[in-house]
Amino acid sequence: MFNNILIPISSEFYQKNVLNRAVFLAEKLQSKLTIIYIIEEKTISQAIKLIDPYRTPQELAEIKKEIINKHKQTAAEIVFDDAKQLTKNKKIEINEKIVEGEFSEAIQREIELNQYDLILMGFEKECLLKYRLLEETTIPIWIDAGYEPDTILVVCSNLAPNKKAPDIGIKLSKKLNWDLQLLYIVDTEDTVQVDEEGHRSDKKPERTLLFHGQKFIEEIRKKGINAELIKGSLEKETINAAEKIKTSLIIIGREQKKKGMLGLPVKNLKKKIAEKCNHSILFIN
């Protein structure tokens, strides 16, 4: 399923819970793990700005080298050591890398060089502003919040093809032995129907969208899955449902929401959901 998992760690923040989740998934799914520690350019630049501006270029170059070496030491003595301790006496293949650059760009370079089928990263609201990755990559992204209850909530809607998200939800629930619930949201702010190819239709009546949603729910229930149909704002109803059932993971597919309240344009939907949600989210891109 997820055979090769990439775990990017920023030099600006490190949350051990993401390694705990990585090891948990590797054991359950027989996955290979790659930890990439990213020494961010911003971190280096901010440190150099605090230094005496009258230093020579040669001195600044030496100082930059020292800063990078300290981060490499942090990666080796803290992050990579934590990974070794967590995988001790476990048959998990793990690779370690250290790179320099901007967070999203460094990850993009890495996934271009190697075949990954999941990116697993820590949850840090202040840092999500730079996660252009949410919109740019086609690889599933799991943002982990370290929440423990063992329930998966799959979110479907009139704004997504609704193929990959349910399939992955079913497979994960079986592999992880977690409960599975599905929620179909008819978005009342963007009343179009997205087909299996991801194409948006013209505006449709709400009753038509509810009819399509009900048919989808009935097919899902035939598979023995608990499913519910509701209407409202995709973002709000997703977060409300996650809080209600105390889910450990929300799975969201290729949502094509373009309009919000009063018909205003919607941008960066995934980032907005992640910023407002306190639960782990798996974005299926």
Report the biggest beta sheet as strand number plus sense, adding barrel if it closes. Answer: 10 strands, mixed
Number of helices: 9
Please identify, by name, the CATH architecture of the largest domain: 3-Layer(aba) Sandwich
Beta-strand percentage range: 15-25%
> Strand order across the biggest sheet?
3-2-1-4-5-10-9-6-7-8
The proportion of residues forming helix, as a percent range, comes to 40-55%
Assigned CATH class of the largest domain: Alpha Beta
Q: Residue-averaged pLDDT, rounded?
A: 89
Give the topology string: H per helix, E per strand.
EHEHHEHEHEEHEHEHEHE
Rg calculated over all Cα atoms: 21 Å
What gap, in angstroms, lies between the N and C termini?
15 Å
Which fold name fills CATH's third level, the topology of the largest domain? Answer: Rossmann fold
Secondary structural class: alpha/beta
Low-confidence stretches: none
Shape: globular
The CATH H-level superfamily of the largest domain is HUPs
Strand runs, count:
10
- How many domain units? 2
Describe the overall structure.
- The mean pLDDT is 89.
- The chain has two domains: 4-144, Rossmann fold; 151-283, HUPs (Rossmann fold), CATH 3.40.50.620.
- The chain is globular and about 70 Å long.
- The protein has a ten-stranded mixed beta sheet, with helices on both faces.
- The chain contains nine helices and ten strands.
- With 285 residues, the chain is of the alpha/beta class.
- Strand 9 (249-252), helix 9 and strand 10 form a beta-alpha-beta unit.
- It has helices spanning 16-29, 41-49, 57-86, 103-113, 133-136, 164-176, 206-221, 234-245, 269-276; strands at residues 4-10, 32-40, 94-101, 118-122, 141-144, 151-157, 179-187, 226-232, 249-252, 280-283.
